[in-house]
């Protein structure tokens, strides 16, 4: 068994129905990738994930559910996200356009704009994103 008390939380989306849906897709095995905004990492002063990093997947109630390990990280332009990545996000996307529309809706939301300190933040083809792949190494609950 992995000791996980000292691992950071692995946070997907924002607390509430979105996070819990994303956590469920990870636990089902459907979600093995996620995408974040590089500007959000920079605004929050967080280091980028790196292969081998481990974290504890938590739900909206901050319950520790699994240990995940980062397997790959790429910083790329939003326009360069490919279909494989969109499919591996496990949320039922069938095209990059569908994936992008969903993500833009999230990235243009008030909570994200607040985190970035820019109430009118928008993304475009040249916005840098962090495309991350991970695997569940241990279920905790």
Shape: globular
Low-confidence stretches: none
**How big is the Rg?**
15 Å
What is the first-to-last residue Cα distance?
13 Å
Tally of helical runs: 5
Mean pLDDT: 94
Verbal overview:
- The structure is a single chain.
- The protein is an alpha+beta fold and 141 residues long.
- The model has no long low-confidence stretch (mean pLDDT 94).
- Strands 1-3-4-5-2 form a five-stranded mixed sheet.
- It contains five helices and five strands; from the N terminus they run βαβαββαααβ.
Furnish the topology, listing elements before pairings.
Blueprint: E1 9-10, H1 17-28, E2 33-37, H2 38-44, E3 54-58, E4 64-77, H3 83-88, H4 96-107, H5 110-116, E5 128-139
Parallel strand pairs: 1-3
Antiparallel strand pairs: 2-5, 3-4, 4-5
Please give a handful of descriptors for the protein shown.
141 residues, alpha+beta, 5-stranded mixed beta sheet, 5 strands
